[in-house]
Amino acid sequence: MEIIKTVVGVLRNKNQEILISKRKKEQFMGGFWELPGGKIETGESLKQAIIRELKEELGIQVNQLTLHKTMMHKYEDRAVQLSIYNINEHQNTPLGIEGQAISWASVDELNNYKLLPTMKAFISSITLPNKYWITPSSNHQSDEWMGKFNQKLNSDITLLQLRSKIELDNSFIRELNNKCKKNNIKLLLNTINKTFNEPYCDGWHLTTTEMLKLSKRPCADNKLLGVSTHNLTEALKAQTMGADFVVISPVQTTKTHPDTISLGWDIAKEIVDKLNIPVYFLGGMALKDLEKTQQLGAQGIAGISAF
Ligand SMILES: Nc1nc2c([nH]c(=O)n2[C@H]2C[C@H](O)[C@@H](COP(=O)(O)OP(=O)(O)OP(=O)(O)O)O2)c(=O)[nH]1
Ligand SMILES: [Mg+2]
């Protein structure tokens, strides 16, 4: 299948709204809203291409830009490799120079538009945090467990996975959820016997085994769904099933599993490059690894004792 190299730009106004553009009827995926941009021309670098595209489509002169992330998306008849740039500085007010409709939308408002399929993963990548805390999986009501949980409530953690290998009381989970809500933390359940309609959570986190049994997303679109995976095949399956993000592990060796072979940075990066949904690295991660992780294109790091 032909791979179409495409560059797109993220322009934000002072209200942090994002500029989207409507594809024209006669184009592939006509009528869908997208990030402005287009295909690379022969001999052009990615940066030259995005500067040219935004001049042609919006009439702006880009002065400063940084790569946000790259992703790959397969349509029925083509594969698109999308490089998404944050446009940090530009001249002129953007206009629909080619006659296309344009609109500024907040992240929440984006969901009211008929968006290209790549937009869902883009939205996840700008809304998910770069740290994902996983709770210890046993002794939940102990002082030690509650101590760790309470400490995270007052930290910069905004996404939390409640992990348990034994059944927990719903009243206990509700209590944790209330505490998370008060502290603007999203709570994902990785408990046994998930029903996917528990109201007291923001979503679910699936084990690999659970994911492999599913052919489609088991929960509503407005909930978050993460999946634990260990290689490219599993990660791609999770993406096809409809996961919002995956965790891959072990990226490095850990003290708890010293004999398990780790993926290593290179393979971890390969997985990130072949997915379009956000990827968190787990296993032997510490805060000092966050920068490298993001440079490799991952969303961030996950861990029980990483932070
Ligand atoms: N511009 C843009 N294209 C996207 C996005 N997501 C996505 O899959 N694509 C696909 C659709 C197209 O196959 C390709 C982009 O090409 P395009 O149609 O915008 O190309 P272009 O501006 O060079 O215009 P054209 O003259 O070739 O029609 O990438 C996106 O967010 N923005
Ligand atoms: Mg275009």
TrEMBL record:
Presence of the UniProt keyword Glycoprotein in the record: no
Lineage: Bacteria, Pseudomonadati, Pseudomonadota, Gammaproteobacteria, Candidatus Pseudothioglobaceae
GO biological process: DNA repair; DNA replication; thiamine biosynthetic process
Domain named Nudix hydrolase: residues: 2-129
DNA damage as UniProt keyword: yes
A Pfam family the protein falls into: TMP-TENI
Organism: Ruthia magnifica subsp. Calyptogena magnifica
Protein residues bound to 8-oxo-dGTP: R23, E34, L35, P36, G37
Keywords attached to this entry: DNA damage, DNA repair, DNA replication, Hydrolase, Magnesium, Metal-binding, Mutator protein
Name of the molecule in the record: 8-oxo-dGTP diphosphatase
GO molecular function annotations of the record: 8-oxo-7,8-dihydrodeoxyguanosine triphosphate pyrophosphatase activity; 8-oxo-7,8-dihydroguanosine triphosphate pyrophosphatase activity; 8-oxo-dGDP phosphatase activity; 8-oxo-GDP phosphatase activity; metal ion binding
Protein family according to the UniProt entry: Belongs to the Nudix hydrolase family.
InterPro entries linked: Aldolase_TIM, Mutator_MutT, MutT-like, MutY_C, Nudix_hydrolase, NUDIX_hydrolase-like_dom_sf, NUDIX_hydrolase_CS, NUDIX_hydrolase_dom
